[in-house]
Amino acid sequence: MDDKTPSPEVAANNPATNSRKRKAALSVLGVLFVLAGSAYGLYWFEHGRWIESTDDAYVNGHVVQITPQLGGTVLAVHAEDTDTVKAGQVLVELDRADARVALDQAETSLAQTVRETRTMFANNSTLAQQVKVRETEVERWKQDVARRQAIANTGAVAGEELEHIRDSLKTAEASLAAAQEQLAASRSMTEGAQVETHPAVARAAAKYEEAWLAWSRAMVTAPVAGQIARRNVQVGQRIAPGTPLMAVIPLEQVWIDANFKEVQLRRMHIGQPVTLVSDVYGSAVEYHGRIAGLGAGTGSAFALLPAQNATGNWIKVVQRVPVRIALEPKELAAHPLRIGLSTEVEVDTHDQSGQALSAVTNKPETRIAEADAGIEEARAKVREIIRKTLQARG
Fold first, then answer.
1. Who contacts 61 (Cβ-Cβ below 8 Å, separation ≥6)?
2. CA distance 261 to 299
3. Where are the alpha helices (DSSP H) in 77-230?
4. Could you write out the three-class secondary structure of 207-268?
5. pLDDT at site 51
6. How far is it, in rounded angstroms, from Cα 393 to Cα 121?
7. Among 4, 6, 261, 389, whose CB has the most other CB atoms within 10 angstroms?
8. Does the structure show a pLDDT above 90 at 94?
């Protein structure tokens, strides 16, 4: 070995060599930091600065209270907590014996009213015939008076007989006037109407519809499809109208209420895309949605005890505003959410074309189809009763 060539041990302990290695390592590390910083800066400029996020976000939805429209004794309960029900499915049965009796009475009253009204229409013809009879009598007495008046000067007819005939004419004319008044009164009760549309029949029909609805409402049904929660009704219980029996939660209609800080709302608009994850599924399941609306005030403004800021020791606190987020129905069906679950939300604010406030839109109306079906079925029953009564001529 050449004496001028240092040994490995000497080279390793050489300060100059160590300094060069450190400089090289620091240079590489510096380049990595610069690249990482540049990458993060590019990410922040292109994407990160447009993202607003919060973990103060929870699943919310409609809680449809099931309440009876009339009181009664509970005969059966057909749903338990966590059960899934369909719209129109019977949940609770009430005793409707009294309602059945009232319905039978209303049906009898309607049929009787139809018969009386039909008789009223038939009386018009009878009264018209009576008017014709009275007119014939008046005409006959007029002719008698004229004949006797012509020969009265000859002495062939006594004056007393002529006066009797004239009195008979006056009586016939009075009877004619009375018959005409009766005919006019009867026609005024039926003019411009038929038996089916007569006010008396319509009043009796309304009473029947009322009794039919009371009878049908003894079966408490689900107004919407969903999952049962908070059942607090038992068989044999006596309940009053409006008593909460249970709740139905339509889980396919839930949304997210994300509470963003007020400084995060500057670039938020309706329709901006949102991505979120729920704690129940973790980051493996990602939901997508859009901003549906921004709250009209902060949470503290609508609190039961609003904050009193007009005090001497006031401290500013950053407020939060609820933002409603609508979810994709397909993703929600694949991974159902429950009301109250926690989520983490990220809003992409790139798109600034949306409105800052929710616009008035013609959204589809949520209504109970069974309510309209019930009144239509009652009216169909009324028409059937009237038809059968009119056909029964005996």
1. 249, 250, 251, 253, 254, 255, 339
2. 11
3. 97-150, 159-190, 199-216
4. HHHHHHHHHHCCEEECCCCEEEECCCCCCCCEECCCCCCEEEECHHHCEEEEEEEHHHCCCC
5. 85
6. 14
7. 389
8. yes
Is pLDDT of 14 > 60? yes
CB 228 within 8 A of CB 247: yes
* pLDDT tens sequence across 264-291: 888 889 999 999 999 999 989 999 999 9
Q: Are 196 and 113 in contact (CB under 8 A)?
A: no
- Residues near 364 by beta carbon (within 8 Å), at least 6 away in sequence: none
| Fold category of 52-70+237-301+318-362 in CATH | Elongation Factor Tu (Ef-tu); domain 3 (2.40.30)
b/e code 22-45 from CB counts within 10 Å (16+ = b): eeeeeeeeeeeeeeeeeeeeeeee
CA distance 355 to 161: 102
> Which DSSP category does 328 fall into?
P
Q: How many CB atoms lie within 10 A of CB 332?
A: 19
210: Cβ contacts below 8 Å, ≥ 6 apart? 106
Query: Could you give phi then psi for residue 60, rounded to 5 degrees?
Result: -135, 165
Tell me how far apart the alpha carbons of residues 342 and 258 are, in angstroms, rounded to a whole number.
Answer: 10
What CA–CA distance (Å, rounded) separates 293 from 355? 10
Instruction: Give the Cβ contact number of residue 170 at 10 Å.
Output: 11
Asked if residue 113 lies in contact with residue 201, where contact means CB atoms within 8 angstroms, the answer is yes
Of 316, 112, 292, nearest in space to 205 by CA: 112
R_g over Cα of the chain: 45
C-alpha span between 126 and 120 (Å, rounded): 10
Residue whose C-alpha is closest to residue 296's, from 343, 377, 356, 336: 356
